[in-house]
Specification:
Blueprint (H helix, E strand, L loop, with lengths): L7 E6 L3 E7 L5 E8 L4 H15 L9 E4 L11 E2 L2 H13 L3 E6 L4 E6 L5 E7 L7 H11 L3 H10 L11 H13 L4 H23 L5 E4 L6 H11 L3 E2 L7 H11 L8
Parallel strand pairs: 1-4, 4-5, 6-9, 9-10
Antiparallel strand pairs: 1-2, 2-3, 6-7, 7-8
């Protein structure tokens, strides 16, 4: 074992990825694990926890664990299950040191969270009814176009033209893409149009609450350069991305496991 001592752990059992973050008594990140989510959440999280604890010493005999995410109630070793809204707000506030508007785009849902100057949730909006406003929309269409996920952002940004995608449903969008390809429309233009379609839905969610700068983007989609650029363009404010944007929910859960607000905050 090596590295800083673990005082608390957060688990974010998402629909697409599973994340585990360990923090020290001061709230610093001691270690983390991230891998694609599997159907057997209880088994996967137990293996990730054991793997993390093998590599990092424990501060005390008992390490409190808080779970969040889609499968949070299936993490049997967790003492508490806390909503993603609370955990993401806590994690981002800790990572950035400020409140504002948080846009978290996950695989199954998207959330807009207004965070106050003390790090608490002021208001939020959530899209969990349709995949068209989530990361799954890009993942599904990327597979249909045979484009690796890591190439989506760069190719969209480099596209000379943007092909509008009129369908508001993932299934219908796929049919529209097939028709566009059959008519010889360049793939990069289609990709840019798909990104625009996703971003337009996200911006509509943000505007239901109002834009409260600074604006932060988290979740796996935060790594997509085209989404970041288009959000900045349409919102009219710079969209910031914290280090390790996929870990914000697990980090927030770990900080909640560590103790009451005020412990381990930036």
């Amino acid at each position: 074992m090596s590295g800083p001592h673990v005082a608390a752990i957060g688990v974010d059992a998402g629909s697409t990825t599973c994340k585990v973050v360990a923090v020290t008594a001061e709230g610093g990140v001691a270690g983390w694990r991230l891998e694609r989510g599997l159907p057997r959440v209880e088994e996967q999280t137990a293996l990730l926890l054991d793997d993390l604890l093998r590599d990092h010493p424990v501060a005390t005999g008992r390490v409190p664990i808080v779970a969040t995410g889609y499968g949070r109630r299936l993490v049997r070793r967790a003492e508490r299950a806390v909503t993603e809204i609370t955990c993401h707000a806590r994690g981002v506030f800790h990572a950035t040191g400020h409140g504002g508007t948080l846009l978290d785009v996950g695989g199954q849902d998207s959330k807009v969270i207004q965070i106050g100057p003390d790090g608490r949730v002021v208001d939020f909006a959530m899209n969990d009814k349709c995949a068209a406003g989530t990361g799954r929309f890009l993942e599904h269409t990327a597979a249909r176009l045979d484009v690796p996920l890591e190439e989506l952002g760069p190719r969209s940004c480099a596209a000379r033209r943007e092909q509008a995608i009129s369908s508001t449903c993932t299934v219908f969008a796929e049919s529209e893409i097939i028709s566009l390809l059959a008519h010889g429309v360049p793939v990069d233009g289609i990709l840019r149009g798909l990104h625009r379609s996703l971003v337009s839905r996200l911006v509509a969610m943000v505007r239901t609450l109002g834009v409260r700068p600074p604006v932060t983007l988290s979740g796996g989609v935060a790594q997509n350069s085209a989404v970041r650029a288009m959000l900045t363009e349409e919102l009219g404010v710079e969209v910031r991305v914290p280090a390790h944007p996929q870990l914000m929910g697990a980090l927030g859960a770990a900080l909640l496991a560590l103790g009451p607000p005020g412990n381990g905050t930036a």
